[in-house]
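Chapter review: from sequence to fold.
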Amino acid sequence: MLRLAASSRAAIRSSSQHVRSLSSVSFDKFPFLKELGLESDMPGVFDGREWKANGEKVEVYSPADDSIVGTVQWGTQEDYQRCMANAIAAQKDWAAKPAPFRGEVVRQIGLEMEKLRDPLGRLISLEMGKIAGEGVGEVQEVIDMAYLAAGMSRQIPGQVFPSERNQHTLIETWNPIGTIGIITAFNFPCAVFGWNATVSMIAGNTQIWKGAPSSNLVSIASTKIVQNVLERNDCDPAVSVLCQGGTDIGEAMSNDSRLPLISFTGSVRAGKEVAKTVAGRLGKSLLELGGNNAVIVMPDADLEMAVRSILFSAVGTAGQRCTSLRRLYIHSDVYDEIVPRLLKAYSTVRAGNPLDDGTLLGPLHNQAAVKTFEDAVAKAKSQGGKVLVGGARMEGTPLHVQPTIIEMEHEMGIIQEENFVPIMYVMKVNSYDEAVMKNNDVPQGLSSALFTKDFQNVFKWIGPHGSYCGIANVNTGSSGAEIGGAFGGEKETGGGRESGSDSWKQYMRRSTCTINHGNELPLAQGITFE
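The token string follows.
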């Protein structure tokens, strides 16, 4: 997270010397930072030639205890233009290299990430606030994506179609789209970059990345890993440039017609603005936005499995995953059995410093999130909700809140909202059909899950009249996803797909090529023009 180090926009330390002193002391407490090549005061811009920034300095701090970790200097519009020029210049040579060579470079990025998995995972925990195990797991996603993308590089397909014309053949080819823009959010500051970057790089694109303004060190450390691998393979490191900054950098990217694709992860509100701006110049957007996710528990479900899964889906990452469980629909036949089990399970969750062994619940990311939590609890209660557990801040820590379950009715207005905090609304349903209707009756459509042993309902759930979500799980939770499948959702989630399956298509352009290998010139549809 960040505070502006020298700005009237935030009330912070009045002495820059005091800031530097605090940063140095806190930085030295975390030896894994030096393992990643980080320093207590760093530029947040890599233009492919050098690390150099000319913008405002911001303080990086840990949400666990509000301690300052270091300072990072953001980029200016001039820095952005320099990054863009170098990335565009690098793309011609990168695209000319064989796709399997590009895949080998990406595979090596995965190997380097694997070597640094623990320190990078702990940095994610330090800067974002998720527990260390989840931070390491996030890096593992990038490692897995690198290896998957390396395989993709040898399988980029093209089709051959029969032609209606004699001695003609139709061929479909896929080529890079150029230089793309990647804008990522605070909650998965490394993984989302990896989902995009690994596949885009094997496709032959170069990229400019703007990480979240509150995850500067993760962005820098990840970029350094990519830089080192590119240089080791005699490739232009401007294949992957970084320009950390505020909304001005994101707006510049969205407006830049040299970027045919903008991948944006963030709020629905911001995503709509990005989509509108990019569409205004007829560019393409890949959007990963809100996720008001639901789990349904039917009477025939394995209830023990359901409770364990619900706990992680709702409480993991302190409710700050795109796929976190927000709405729980329990069949009335088992409602009174499951709810007490959940209350007991919630009582076992150990809150604390996310870097400490045994911690299961870390802090929220910033004070704004704490206010969102408090406002959501108050709003739910005002609409008739009953707090069953939690509902308040924890004492003795600035950003920890109690994981919360609120008994609600589906018709209450707050059910339509995604609040990015550990609040789960629990509701009764009386049938499978009612549960599916309520699952789909929100503006968002990212993740969902059904717990049942009835395979008629399973196949209805994953069919055309089932879950209207990009992720429709069965007997496992809503939270998290493997990299082999495409990740994304419908409606206000944005419609984008990243990661595996055929998501690579979004980073390439398709051409249909008609090849005449004969001596005549027949026209399509039998047209004569003589």
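Two observations follow directly from the output. The longest strand covers residues 168-176. The chain is about 40% helix and 20% strand.
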